[in-house]
């Protein structure tokens, strides 16, 4: 694997430094002096209309950013990923989530490390479809013969955030009378509350774990199994014999994993397990078998549409020159803001309540991918990396944190995502509510970009100290992503867009965006500390002073 190119040593970086030192953001002036600005900076990305015009860039800055992508080898690295090179260097793995959404019969065929990737991907998809159809039609039944009404996905991180986010986003497509719940946290409140009102006879658990070693997931899976047995035994549906219990698990548990041996060891029949491969990173896995809960609830057709959306964006990235390549441009803008304009965070603000888990999903995608201090050859990074992603749907955020974005001292680039057509076309007082909603999206991006000058405030009759308080500086950068409707295809496009933005930034920073060693230490320490909470005095004594004091507090106050 070639060494990362130090972005700071490129001529583009020198140019960008020069732009930065003379930089005077002036969106009002730029819009006034360049009638073509919106046209030049608006793009069609599959079904998405992407307007970059309200970003803090001039033509010259943009040209240097595109040059930066060239000089740091973004296209070459992307090609290496698609060809199955082991660009995940620390785990010596290929990175092939893009293969999960190649259409059947894609050509040329993709064979990597001796594996016929296309064949294997299609085989699992077909198995998922067939299983989902059985559940949806009622052919698959619980141990007492009842149809499944609720699917409970047990997983965490990439084995939870994607399916959960998409289910919430596409709920209107759930057409088979089957709903889904998502249990992730090892906090027992999660599974207790999410199973409290469920009927074991109509519940199907999907244990989703790439490694099938994750403490949270295996603990919750055991709790779910105990809950199932207890419920069925209490109603007399089964006895407590080993045979009855095994039979109940066979009817109410399926699994998704790359480690089918561990699935079997847990007691789930591998005939009811769906596999994927080590070249799919957890946070890139929602379009693998990890999406099984979606195929069941939304249907195979909707899931294929989702994959088609992903693929459309993959094709755009692979075949579009850098200067028109939307994910690359958005990644470059993030680099500009992070490394040159000192932005620390990035807001994602969907004007779609159904996308209320989108920011949480993106947090894993972006921050687990690019929250790194070393490059892919182990050398220290030469730039700042990994901005903090956060957000909430509008208009709720408007009444919470937008104040800081409008008038605070920090630069917070923000992505606004909106849809022309509502999933629920309601009116109130004779007015289209979705229209009122979208007026807020348009108003916010306008206010952030162009602000309100002191003269404008005064012209409205305000005087004295209030003038400053009511002045909006503007020049707060936003990207507007607009689409006709929140469909499975459009959602696939949106997710793939952010995957490729993340990748672009990772390449420029020289990062391996596909490992996550930073989560390991906490996992190891939790296992060491757990015995101390169970009363092991030696384990408690081995801790640092602060941890010991916290354990003492725990001991003194635990009452249940
Ligand atoms: O702890 C981080 C992580 O490894 C994520 O990358 C992953 O998505 C999550 O844990 C869950 O892992 P698994 O699917 O193997 O249970």
TrEMBL record:
PROSITE patterns: P_GLUCOSE_ISOMERASE_1, P_GLUCOSE_ISOMERASE_2, P_GLUCOSE_ISOMERASE_3. Keywords: Cytoplasm, Gluconeogenesis, Glycolysis, Isomerase. Pfam families: PGI. Its main location: cytoplasm. It is found in: Cytoplasm. It catalyses: alpha-D-glucose 6-phosphate = beta-D-fructose 6-phosphate. GO terms for molecular function: glucose-6-phosphate isomerase activity. The keyword Nucleotide-binding does not apply. Its EC number is 5.3.1.9. The keyword Amino-acid biosynthesis does not apply. The active site is at residues 368, 399, 523. It comes from the Bacteria. Pathway: Carbohydrate degradation; glycolysis; D-glyceraldehyde 3-phosphate and glycerone phosphate from D-glucose: step 2/4; Carbohydrate biosynthesis; gluconeogenesis. It is an enzyme of class 5 (isomerase). NCBIfam families: PRK00179.1. Belongs to the GPI family. Catalyzes the reversible isomerization of glucose-6-phosphate to fructose-6-phosphate. This is Glucose-6-phosphate isomerase.
């Amino acid at each position: 694997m070639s060494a990362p190119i130090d972005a700071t040593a490129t001529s583009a970086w020198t140019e960008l430094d020069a732009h930065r030192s003379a930089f005077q953001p002036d969106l009002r002036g730029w819009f006034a002096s360049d009638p073509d600005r919106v046209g030049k900076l608006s793009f069609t990305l599959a079904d998405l209309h992407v307007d970059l015009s309200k970003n803090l860039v001039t033509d010259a800055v943009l040209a240097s950013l595109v040059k930066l992508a060239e000089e740091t080898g973004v296209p070459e690295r992307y090609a290496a990923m698609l060809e199955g090179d082991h660009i995940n260097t620390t785990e010596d793995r290929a990175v092939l989530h893009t293969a999960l959404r190649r259409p059947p019969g894609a050509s040329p065929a993709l064979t990597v490390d001796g594996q016929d990737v296309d064949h294997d991907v299609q085989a699992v998809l077909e198995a998922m479809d067939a299983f989902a159809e059985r559940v949806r039609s009622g052919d698959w039944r619980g141990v007492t013969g009842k149809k499944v009404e609720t699917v409970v996905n047990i997983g965490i991180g990439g084995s939870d955030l994607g399916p959960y986010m998409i289910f919430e986003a596409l709920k209107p497509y759930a057409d088979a009378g089957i709903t889904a719940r998502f249990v992730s946290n090892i906090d027992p409140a999660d599974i207790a509350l999410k199973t409290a009102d469920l009927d074991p006879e109509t519940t199907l658990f999907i244990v989703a774990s790439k490694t099938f070693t994750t403490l949270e997931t295996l603990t919750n899976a055991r709790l779910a199994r105990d809950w199932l047995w207890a419920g069925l035994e209490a109603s007399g549906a089964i006895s407590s014999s080993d045979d009855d219990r095994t039979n109940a698990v066979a009817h109410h548990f399926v699994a998704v994993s790359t480690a089918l041996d561990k699935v079997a060891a847990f007691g789930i029949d591998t005939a009811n397990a769906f596999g994927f491969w080590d070249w799919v990173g957890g946070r890139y896995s929602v379009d693998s078998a990890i999406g099984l809960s979606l195929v069941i609830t939304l249907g195979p057709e909707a899931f294929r549409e989702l994959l088609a959306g992903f693929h459309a964006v993959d094709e755009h990235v692979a075949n579009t020159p850098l200067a028109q390549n939307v994910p690359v441009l958005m990644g470059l803008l993030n680099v500009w803001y992070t490394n040159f304009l000192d932005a620390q965070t990035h807001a994602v603000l969907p004007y779609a309540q159904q996308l209320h888990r989108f920011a949480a999903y993106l947090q894993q995608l972006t921050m687990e991918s690019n929250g790194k201090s070393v490059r892919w050859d182990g050398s220290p990074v030469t730039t700042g990396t990994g901005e903090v992603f956060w957000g909430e749907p509008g208009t709720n955020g408007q009444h919470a944190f937008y104040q800081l974005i409008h008038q605070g001292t920090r630069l917070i680039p923000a992505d606004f995502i909106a849809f022309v057509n509502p999933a629920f076309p309601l009116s109130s007082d004779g007015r289209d509510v979705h229209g009122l909603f979208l007026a807020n999206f348009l108003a916010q991006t306008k206010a952030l970009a162009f602000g309100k000058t002191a003269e404008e405030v005064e012209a409205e009759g305000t005087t004295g100290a209030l003038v400053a308080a009511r002045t909006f500086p503007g020049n707060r950068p936003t990207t507007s992503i607009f689409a006709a409707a929140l469909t499975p295809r459009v959602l696939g496009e949106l997710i793939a867009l952010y995957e490729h933005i993340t990748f672009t930034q990772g390449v420029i920073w020289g990062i391996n965006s596909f490992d996550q060693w930073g989560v390991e230490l906490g996992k190891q320490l939790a296992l060491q500390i757990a015995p101390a909470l169970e009363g092991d005095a030696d384990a408690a004594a081995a801790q640092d002073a602060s941890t010991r004091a916290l354990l003492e507090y725990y001991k003194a106050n635990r009452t249940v």
